[in-house]
Amino acid sequence: MIRFENVTKVYARGARPALDDVSLEVERGEFVFLVGASGSGKSTFLRLVLREERATSGNVFIAGRDLQNLSNWKVPSMRRQIGAVFQDFRLLPNKTVYENVAFALQVIGKPRHHIMTTVPETLEMVGLSGKEKRRPHELSGGEQQRVAIARAFVNRPSILLCDEPTGNLDPTTSLGIMRLLDRINRTGTTVVMATHDDEIVDQMRKRVIELSTGELVRDQSRGVYGSAR
Ligand SMILES: Nc1ncnc2c1ncn2[C@@H]1O[C@H](COP(=O)(O)OP(=O)(O)OP(=O)(O)O)[C@@H](O)[C@H]1O
């Protein structure tokens, strides 16, 4: 589903690579944690998958498509198969919960009747039924993240990228978010989650990929956060 072949990313000429000759493959339906110290290249990895950045050398393939050679006009349709969730939720503050989620379908031209059935279904799935009319500031952090997940998943993408989704949440709330991501993964969605949350990684026992100054230093199935354990 996601394949990196000798991928190197250098942001500024002469700078140390943010990713250094990384090769890996994530199969359809996998759940993968991406770990590593701050600045190790996790967000760069996710930005390359979204083609927000291009590799300096090497190739990134998404569902068999080579992103290096993908024309710019094809990028939006490629991105429709990818949902993204961030630490800071990135909701539209003046829109309601319902509108935030519906908007993701409106901008890709989905018909009204589809939106009217899919949005309530998705809000129910993430546990937000009854809160459709609230605005983001009327929700807890965990609820805001659920809205962000609903928005990312409402189009049923084949890949969900999560960049520190529990970074602003307390441990109990984080666990609820992880249960939700696990459920989404069980529907067949490939989930890649960059995180510093050692407790969650140790509890979930999923594949762990560790980066260190841009290099892939560990790829462990049913892994833990720290390699020393
Ligand atoms: N837009 C950019 N321009 C120049 N350098 C960048 C840019 N984005 C990231 N970098 C550099 O690339 C390296 C990897 O950064 P990246 O954000 O991918 O790390 P990270 O593992 O996601 O860190 P964190 O856990 O703090 O989010 C760092 O040295 C960073 O300074």
Strand order of the largest sheet: 6-7-8-3-9-10
Residue windows where pLDDT falls under 50 for at least 5 positions: none
Tertiary shape: globular
Largest sheet: 6 strands, mixed
Rounded to the nearest angstrom, the distance between the terminal CA atoms is: 30 Å
Q: Report the helical percentage.
A: 25-40%
Helix-strand sequence: EEEHEEHEHHHEHEHEE
What structural category do the secondary elements indicate?
alpha/beta
Strand content: 15-25%
InterPro entries: AAA+_ATPase, ABC_transporter-like_ATP-bd, ABC_transporter-like_CS, ABC_transpr_LolD-like, Cell_div_FtsE, P-loop_NTPase
GO biological process, one term: cell division
Keywords: ATP-binding, Cell cycle, Cell division, Cell membrane, Membrane, Nucleotide-binding
Family: Belongs to the ABC transporter superfamily.
Structure commentary:
The protein is α/β, with parallel strands linked by helices and 229 residues long. The chain has a domain at 91-156. 32% of the residues lie in helices and 24% in strands. The chain contains seven helices and ten strands. The chain has helices at 42-49, 75-79, 97-106, 112-125, 141-153, 171-186, 198-204; strands at residues 2-9, 19-26, 31-35, 57-62, 65-66, 82-86, 159-163, 190-194, 207-212, 215-220. The strands form two sheets. It has a six-stranded mixed beta sheet with strand order 6-7-8-3-9-10, with helices on both faces. The chain has a four-stranded antiparallel beta sheet with strand order 2-1-4-5, with helices on one face. A hairpin with a 2-residue loop joins strand 4 and strand 5 (65-66). Helix 3 runs parallel beside helix 5. The two termini are 30 Å apart. The model has no long low-confidence stretch (mean pLDDT 95). The structure holds adenosine-5'-triphosphate. Residues 11-12, 18, 36, 38-44 line the site of adenosine-5'-triphosphate (ATP). Adenosine-5'-triphosphate binds at residues 11-12, 18, 36, 38-44.
